[in-house]
Design brief:
The complex is a heterodimer of chains A (about 400) and B (about 230). Chain A has 13 helices and 10 strands. A 3-stranded antiparallel beta sheet of chain A has the order 1-2-3. In chain A, strands 8-9-10 form a 3-stranded antiparallel beta sheet. Chain B starts with 5 loop residues before the first strand and ends in a 6-residue tail after the last helix. The chains are: A alpha+beta (about 400), B alpha/beta (about 230). Chains A and B meet through helix 1, helix 2, helix 4 and helix 5 of A and helix 1 of B.
């Protein structure tokens, strides 16, 4: 890099977790960027070794306080695959509802974090309070259906922990419908160009050529992606030699599909399953906002299909040797859990690949040529999740 | 503390569920305190705050995090550990390290292993209303929650196993069922009017202990009033 190059380090705020964004600029434009997560590695794949599958579900949900249910669902899918268990219809429906509620919850949390970038200061406080109130309504529905607004305990092997009563179902249908109306009002403000900051213009102008990867629009399907093509590498293996010093602190790994970077998450899902076409950085944020609406509509559809008189959990579960894979579309994209159980039914091997690992390459490359003044907004648009991204083993 | 206290919320590498649960009560909290959190932006660790709320465990093998924790402690009057990982270790007590890319991150502890903690609120995550109640008690300078959460800060480790050892097996249990309702993983069940622990589901969060009417008295007597109990 030339003599006029200077280096800026952003301690990223308003994202899920602790990370630095290291940016090299030439005058006013960004030449290159590095996304470095810093949270310590708690090592959940190691924690669950030797443990009973019941513990695994509770433990992996605690990888992340934002996409807890996504981890829980991917884990139970993997364990059910290993044990040869299949949940009854109610169980599958309730799981999908809870997963989508978690998606809405996570997207709303992200919206709260990114609104200061989108909306001008004079309108900010009011809209933030509205968003937090809506988040609280979503939390209430998750608590009623899943047992708790964070790390819901009703995600269990063999289905769902508790079938809600008819009254709870109809109450939550009404609440979801109210949330949809409130959300449409909030979205109206967020897309109002008179209230938007100039950052939105810049985000709209930046077009990236993305390659999307998704397995399902609402749930997750392991047959829609080729798991053999996924490779995980160390950060410096991906970025090559001659890296800045800070990179040695990185606690995340990078996931590639067919040795290439892919984008996962809301835009990838809508591109593949809904013919969404907007490759600008704003297009990614807009896709996430559309997904909230789409998810709420789907939740209402599913709530009506549940039969409170039918069971939600399969009656016979035998813990035994087996291998299983769970693929789920977490709020941020494709999430993969794989498990091996020994002859006592205890975990002998566990691996997790999280969406943020796929998105880091785009978080860096899409910053190039943009003005340095919006540098910290770029990774934020991708909604990185550091608690998840730091808990992964190397697989090849 | 009669004025509106300034409160810093800082996460040390937990799952983010705890700081986000505080954000949920922001509309109420902003009336009684000035909140500074990573999630709203513009936090500055060089500034002084009245209260710091730490979420997430401390990784003993990460010197940078230990320095940050000590620095925060030195700059605030009151330090609160919020959530199970920060206050009693929680799920992160099970960490054993060995995982790429930082296999040296082996041991995670409650933050009281490194610094003095004034109050610790266990929960996975705690009900954020408890936090509002504690802030109100702090402003008033007295209240049950101050005693209870000060005792948890000194106990340093609480789990379903402690509930069994101290309350159920000693015969102090009054079979009220509060522990069973409070458990975030449904690891407790009532059998013959006695709580029973499904050991493989206990994540050592300590929530049951602070909800038990008997255990809370034991904790306060033992750690705050310094009386000899059981």
């Amino acid at each position: 890099m030339g003599i006029s190059t200077s280096k800026l380090v952003f301690e990223l705020e308003r994202i899920g977790g602790e990370a630095e964004y290291l940016v090299f600029i030439d005058g006013k434009r960004i030449l290159d960027a590095y996304f470095i997560s810093r949270a310590p590695v708690r090592g959940f794949e190691r924690i669950v070794r030797g443990k009973n599958p019941l513990f695994v579900v509770e433990a992996v949900m605690r990888i992340c306080g934002i996409c807890h249910s996504a981890h829980g669902i991917a884990a139970v899918e993997a364990l059910e695959d290993a044990l040869g268990v299949s949940p009854p219809a109610n169980g599958r429906l309730l799981r999908e509802i809870l997963g989508l509620l978690n998606r809405v919850q996570s997207h709303l949390i992200h919206l709260i974090l990114i609104t200061p970038d989108i909306i001008r200061k004079e309108f900010l406080e009011d809209i933030l309070i509205e968003e937090i109130k809506l988040l609280n309504s979503v939390n209430d529905v998750i608590a009623r259906i899943g047992g708790s607004p964070t790390h819901p305990p009703y995600i269990v092997i063999g289905g769902f922990g508790k079938t809600p009563s008819q009254k709870i179902l109809s109450d939550q249908l009404r609440n979801t419908s109210n949330m949809l109306n409130t959300y449409r009002k909030i979205m109206g403000v967020l897309v109002d160009e008179d209230k938007q900051t100039e950052k939105v213009e810049i985000l709209k102008s930046k077009i990236t050529n993305i390659k999307p990867l998704a397995s399902h629009l609402f749930y997750g399907d392991k047959y829609n992606i080729n798991l053999q093509k996924i490779g995980v590498v160390h950060y410096n293996e991906y970025r090559g030699n001659d890296l800045p010093d800070q990179v040695s602190k990185a606690t995340s790994l990078i996931a590639l599909y067919d040795n290439k970077a892919v984008e996962v998450g809301p835009r990838a899902r809508l591109t593949i399953y809904r013919e969404y076409r907007d490759n600008s950085l704003w297009g990614l944020q807009y896709a996430r906002m559309l997904e909230i609406e789409l998810s709420l509509l789907r939740i209402m559809e599913l709530l009506e299909q549940i039969d409170p008189s039918e069971p939600s959990r399969s009656g016979s579960i035998v813990f035994k040797r087996g291998r299983g894979i769970g693929v789920y579309e977490a709020p941020r994209g494709t999430l993969i859990h794989t498990v091996e159980l020994d002859s006592d039914g205890r975990v002998s091997n566990y691996r997790i690949i999280v969406p943020t690992m796929f998105n880091i390459p785009y978080m860096e490359s899409s910053a190039r040529n943009l003005p340095a003044s919006i540098a910290d907004t770029i990774p934020r648009v991708y909604d990185p999740c550091i608690p998840c991204a730091t808990h992964v083993v190397k697989v090849r | 503390m009669e004025h509106k206290p300034s409160i810093l919320v800082y996460d040390l590498g937990g799952c983010e569920g705890c700081p986000l649960s505080i954000l949920r009560v922001y509309p109420e909290l902003k009336e009684i305190a000035d909140l500074y959190t990573h999630h709203l932006g513009e936090i500055d660790l060089d500034k002084e705050y009245d209260v710091a709320v730490i979420t997430g465990p401390i990784c003993i093998n990460e010197p940078e995090d230990i320095d940050i924790l000590k620095k925060i402690r030195s700059r605030v009057r009151t330090l609160i550990a919020y959530g199970s990982c920060a206050s009693v270790g929680g799920i992160t007590l099970f960490c054993r390290g060995g995982q790429e890319p930082r296999p040296e991150h082996r041991t995670f502890q409650p933050i009281s292993a490194i610094v003095n903690v004034d109050y610790a609120i266990p929960g996975c995550p705690p009900a954020p209303n408890l936090f509002i109640a504690l802030v109100n008690s702090l402003r008033g300078g007295r209240g049950y929650f101050l005693q209870l959460f000060a005792s948890v800060a000194r106990a340093k480790r609480l789990s379903g196993f402690d509930l069994l050892d101290n309350i159920v097996l000693t015969g102090l249990c009054i079979s009220c069922g509060a522990c069973i309702i409070s458990c975030p993983t449904n690891a407790l069940q009532m059998i013959d009017r006695k709580p029973d622990l499904i050991v493989e589901k206990c994540i050592r969060c300590g929530t049951c202990c602070v909800r038990c009417p008997r255990f809370t008295q034991v904790l306060i007597q033992k750690y705050v009033l310094k009386k000899e109990v059981i």
